[in-house]
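Async update (no meeting this week)

Hi team, since we skipped the sync, here's where things stand on the single-chain job. The sequence we agreed to prioritize is pasted below, unchanged from the tracker. I ran it this morning and attached the output directly underneath so nobody has to dig for it. Comments welcome in thread, and please keep replies under the output.
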Amino acid sequence: RQALEAGLIHQIVSTIDDAALVRLRERLDQLEARAGQGELGVLADRAFHEELYATMGNQLMSQLLRVFWDVYHHLAQDLPAVEQSGEDIVTGHREIYNAVANRDAAQAAAAVNRHFLGIQQRLDADW
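Output:
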């Protein structure tokens, strides 16, 4: 999922319009209100990513990203926990949003890759 999202972010940055940025900002606001609140936070996180990549208009890519999301969250209960506060979650998403809104593809790709560090730590942890 990381490779796919980081690879696609360049296309998002170059094609996203102002209306899509408004919708993405609304998803970020929802995430800020719900981060760290269990399932509500998870759903808000997912909605942010779905909104971000929906701007491509590519249903196959959106479905593939959903499959990766579903598989990870199905397996997540068996992975070791990594401490990440609600504010850390919001900060990572805010960095992605800001880079996209500023049309900075390099910063957006870097922010997406940083966003996945927590997931990588969980997958790499010795359990």
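Quick observations from my side:
The chain has seven helices and no strands.
The CA atoms of residues 15 and 127 lie 42 Å apart.
Reply here if anything looks off.
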